Amino acid sequence: MKPSDESAAGRPGPARGLLGRLSASEREELLRQGRLREYEQGEVVLHEGDPSGDVMIIVAGFLKETATAASGTSVLLSIKGPGELLGHLAAIDGNSQHATVLAGTRCRVRVIGAQRFEDFLKNHEKADKALRSYIIEELRTAAQTRIDSAGAPALAKIAHALAELATRHGIETAEGIAIGMPLTQVDLSALTGLSQRAVEVALSVLRQQGMIATRYRQLTVRNLNALREMITSETQQVMKI
To answer: pLDDT tens digits, residue range 54-81?
Structure first.
């Protein structure tokens, strides 16, 4: 972890997450509340079970939230990108961190003390409402993912995960929508609960059908609509059985 001076490199990326819900002046003021930190890919940013503390706003790069299941298996809870928050739930309720956070790429975050973050919200009613809206969206997205994946076949689970990642963290390219963070089959296995072999087979099918393109640790969704249609089709076939 490295502290970083103020620079153009410390400015936020695309306005998403909480930052996307704030006005330009609110964003600038909120970001001024914190100090800029840089993390290298693979570096641990937060540890599951740590006491509540700072709130982090992602300025650039992507991070992975992971937790350990009762079986000892590592579960990838989510991938977060620019504009989103880390540590906010623990800071709000005073409980320990619910997940370990790893830098999926080199990244920069603004670190704001919990009390300073709370004071900012008290003085900015619209920002407080924006935070509640952001948290509700997080909860709804998590719930909808569980609903959509319940009983779904492996192909539908992978298609759903890729469609969600492309929608939230996609970057438009000539080839399609590139998912911003490098992904491995291990990541997709931890995200979907599927075996690595099942992930490998599903990705192969999607490549053959022209819905995705893959290179080393880089995945591009070439046809998002077709991917979504496959989710519905695969799930309906299971329901007919």
So the answer is: 999 999 999 999 988 888 888 899 999 9
**188-196 contact pairs (CB < 8 A, 24+):** 188/158, 188/161, 190/66, 190/73, 190/74, 190/75, 190/76, 191/76, 191/79, 191/161, 192/149, 192/154, 192/157, 192/158, 192/161, 193/75, 193/149, 193/157, 194/154, 194/157, 194/158
pLDDT tens, 144-201? Answer: 777 777 778 899 999 999 999 999 899 999 999 999 898 999 999 999 989 999 999 9
- Nearest-CA neighbor of 154 among 103, 113, 110, 200? 200
> Who has greater pLDDT, 27 or 216?
27
Strands (DSSP E) found in the chain: 2-3, 35-39, 44-46, 55-60, 63-68, 74-80, 85-86, 100-103, 107-112, 170-172, 177-179, 212-215, 218-221
DSSP 129: H
- Fold of domain 2-148: Jelly Rolls (2.60.120)
**Domain at 151-240: CATH code:** 1.10.10.10
In the chain, CATH 1.10.10.10 covers 151-240
Quote the pTM value: 0.83
pLDDT digits (tens, 9 = 90+) for 13-30: 445 899 999 999 999 999
28/44 Cα distance (integer angstroms): 27
